[in-house]
## 1
Amino acid sequence: MLAARYYGIGQVRVEDIPAPVCGPGQALIRVAYAGICGSDLHIFRKGMFVTSIPETMGHEFSGVVEQVGEGVTEVSPGDHVVGDPRVSCGSCRWCGEGSYNLCPGLGFIGEVMPGCFAEYLVLDAKKLLKIPDTVDLRRAAMVEPLAVALHIAGRGRFSEAEHLGVVGAGPIGLLTVIAAKAMSVKRVTVTDISPDRLALAGKLGATALQAFPAEQDDQPNVVVEAVGLEAALAGALGWLRPRGRLVMAGLYEEKTLIDPNDIVVKELELAGVDAYETDDLRKAVELLAEGALDVDCAITHVLPLKSAASAFDLLTSADKKACKILLAP
Ligand SMILES: [Zn+2]
Ligand SMILES: [Zn+2]
């Protein structure tokens, strides 16, 4: 089968490798669509997260169950599925409580075990969530990043009365806007340096700004930082109104310098966000099954798996025209 494998910084190769075989308790999935995530870009640019080379990348997917191993009752061949790509230790206190995203050993498929940028994928059947056949598989591939946005909404305690600021109109920023609109958040303002991405935010009903506003009379009370750069974090801290909440959803490639007094003097609250809880994934599936959310807006490209390397070039180019790219094996 074809698979897009990581070979080191800046190197993704599409190769023919043996298809995986499913063992007891596992399912073999034919991947329909697989999304390239910001964390895949951290791997590509900086070599973060991956524990051995080469590794088949990717953790966001939709697909169809092709075969099940012994003892599997959760899914059957032909079922449309998405997956929980988190790989946790299974024995710590947090895993015991079901908060796998807080496991100190948390990893993901595509980082610590083979991922979904391939024609086939094997996963524990317990990690699969069934999707009704009425949900387009393209849209279903957005369940995982949508779960991140729902987790952001929870950690940020979004409510109708807020003015929400979003820093970064990438996939997570845009899905956060979509989640906020679905929750009737009163006002949403998005900043990004890319006019193309800002146009997408505008389409979703957000006020789109290419820079942080200078005036201090219309500050958001919640700001989601979905970039992971020093300027974005400093801008977010400056933008928030006093006693506002900062939700940190971007992952940083570099050590970052901020002035902690920006937090102290405005009495800000901080909430980190790492992935999602199982309930966020379930909720994302439900919302898509209801047809409640238009997540298609964030998908700018669907490319064949064999074009994986050029998809990474598109996403790491300076003009940031692309947003969510789905690979279609
Ligand atoms: Zn992701
Ligand atoms: Zn654990």
## 2
Amino acid sequence: MDVYSILTSYPDYNPTDTTTKQGAPMIFPEWTTANLALYAALTLLSVGMGAGEALGSTLMKYSKFRPQKGWHPRAGMFTLYFLPIVATVIAALPYLPSASLVQVIVLTTLITHFGKRCLEVLFLHKYSGPIDPFTTLAIASFYTLVAGFLSYLNRWPLPAPDGLFWLGLFLFIFGETANFVHHKILADLRGASSEYILPRGGWFDYVVCPHYLFEIVAWLGILLLSRHLFALIALLGMAGYLLARSRRTLTWYRQKFPNFPSNRKAILPFLF
Ligand SMILES: NC(=O)c1ccc[n+]([C@@H]2O[C@H](COP(=O)([O-])OP(=O)(O)OC[C@H]3O[C@@H](n4cnc5c(N)ncnc54)[C@H](OP(=O)(O)O)[C@@H]3O)[C@@H](O)[C@H]2O)c1
């Protein structure tokens, strides 16, 4: 038995048969008992992340919510973004030599996302303190699971790019670019200090976490490119987490800055 079929099993992939599930807007696994259990567990994990952050029970301890002591932030952050790249490449090895255009683009987006984050951690972000070791390991595990499993599922790609696929590529590029622009604004505002500054410029004039919003846009792009059910589960989990974290960040800013603009929202301008 193929070792990967323990994880999940898809019908035989036939790139010329557009009536198969691979031709559908979403690609689903076969609903065997093992896959039902696997996808239920992945959904629970994903939803649990946002719920934990919202309730405070598993608040991730980095940045504004960091502990007094911990790992060096650059080393911790680099680790948690680099491991997913390793997982992505390893999971792609079996199909890499004969990869289709769709497979190459999906892989490229995953590696670009985590590669961009590695470069930002090394050369752009200005950190003011440590990151909690457990948080580092938890985030590293989640990202590695997401990237590795999406790369593995990329063995069963869309048979050919369709309109949603190209929209996904656009959203990915737009989301990553806008996300970078807002990271740069934060780094420039901080300058040589290690203080927290009331953010302004770009969409910071409307929300406290525009970089989170554009991260969600980029992952929506990856969903439209991959089209696997797991990409939707991962997107919902990340969006839930980032929504919850942005609300906590808004509360934090309101407490820290007495003159905080009352109309500024958490992540969605004018709405949330
Ligand atoms: N896909 C996911 O599930 C997921 C989850 C979390 C984050 N992310 C993404 O990862 C990226 C970074 O997230 P993050 O939570 O680390 O962002 P963040 O807390 O806003 O921090 C980003 C950088 O900006 C600095 N910074 C933040 N607020 C500042 C302020 N008011 N003044 C000066 N410097 C400030 C931080 O320094 P300090 O370290 O000193 O605070 C850090 O260097 C985002 O694009 C986010 O979308 C993705």
